[in-house]
Amino acid sequence: xxxxxxxxxxxxxxxxxxxxxxxxxxxxxxxxxxxxxxxxxxxxxxxxxxxxxxxxxxxxxxxxxxxxxxxxxxxxxxxxxxxxxxxxxxxxxxxxxxxxxxxxxxxxxxxxxxxxxxxxxxxxxxxxxxxxxxxxxxxxxxxxxxxxxxxxxxxxxxxxxxxxxxxxxxxxxxxxxxxxxxxxxxxxxxxxxxxxxxxxxxxxxxxxxxxxxxxxxxxxxxxxxxxxxxxxxxxxxxxxxxxxxxxxxxxxxxxxxxxxxxxxxxxxxxxxxxxxxxxxxxxxxxxxxxxxxxxxxxxxxxxxxxxxxxxxxxxxxxxxxxxxxxxxxxxxxxxxxxxxxxxxxxxxxxxxxxxxxxxxxxxxxxxxxxxxxxxxxxxxxxxxxxxxxxxxxxxxxxxxxxxxxxxxxxxxxxxxxxxxxxxxxxxxxxxxxxxxxxxxxxxxxxxxxxxxxxx
Length: 455
Ligand SMILES: *Cc1c(COP(=O)(O)O)cnc(C)c1O
Hints:
35% of the residues lie in helices and 17% in strands. The protein contains 15 helices and 17 strands.
């Protein structure tokens, strides 16, 4: 085998040939990019052998650490059988077993699994299923073709997912391509648009949502929401009881509830799925990021028997769900996902996570004393720390000074990888992170924020 090119050579080729996601490539050249060659547990290791704590779980996907022996064994074992065969007209053992397992652990009432490759496609599928369901199951209900979603929502980067998203910086230039939707204010307690305080507000922000559902339900196919925490919006948590009320309202007005658990699923919030905290079963649920423990792209859209039945008929009724991907039901991904769920059992991942969630809460408290910190938000093992210029007025740092990125750059030099969202520093460690590693992450984060002086 040819010798691996030097780090210098790799960096040159990266600059010459690549285009990185969500990256201003003109600035990419200013600092040498880190080239990650291997990983172990909570650590990433670059081509020079330098170790970094993975504070983003490799952008929210990794659960049990890198190079986990059970996951490594599962993919090698499957590779010795077959890497891929199509799911169009054929099936395969890992995909079948995984569907059974997902239905076993999913909120009660979800009974069917439709596979795809990533979070965005899982969302697209939910949207398309919802629209086609109404046409076929309740043709007299009229054209229920549009969706309600929260402002600041993020559901992926494909056109349908962007249509139900609302992050102006990412989405505004694509407006001409997007289908129209209905937007509602999110329950953003730190910057409450109603200037109220929870719980005395009694979730008054739900009133306008009920109003929308009441007046628009005839053309609303579904309400799509990230349960418990709007993650990419900058870690905006929903108060306790909010999701349950949304479930009730959707049922009352015959609008399907679509939960996007791409970020919150697989233990992130402390339970297997965020919906469980509120005893909620959605009509459709999108899963991806943690599904394979962060090893390979795989996604699943789960739904109920009621929706599934709407697609049944003879061939020439053409009620088929006309959607599929080249890699639907990929056996390598499904074998990994099965092994991932197995680890949850054998390593008691969720039980062992609980004290670490409490530890994280304790470790985050002192941040409130830093003059640069406005708000600390946490749901399970995901946290956001919002930087502000002024704690009293909540005046944000202008985006142009890149406060979040400056802190992340310092953290990197101290051995912690972070990916901020604007002025919100996000800490999403692998669920397997040890107490010691968690303390180290928070220590580096504190030191890095303290260096932030802007004049
Ligand atoms: C990441 C994410 C997506 C998109 O998933 P991709 O795999 O990046 O396409 C959708 N919804 C939520 C909540 C996400 O966090």
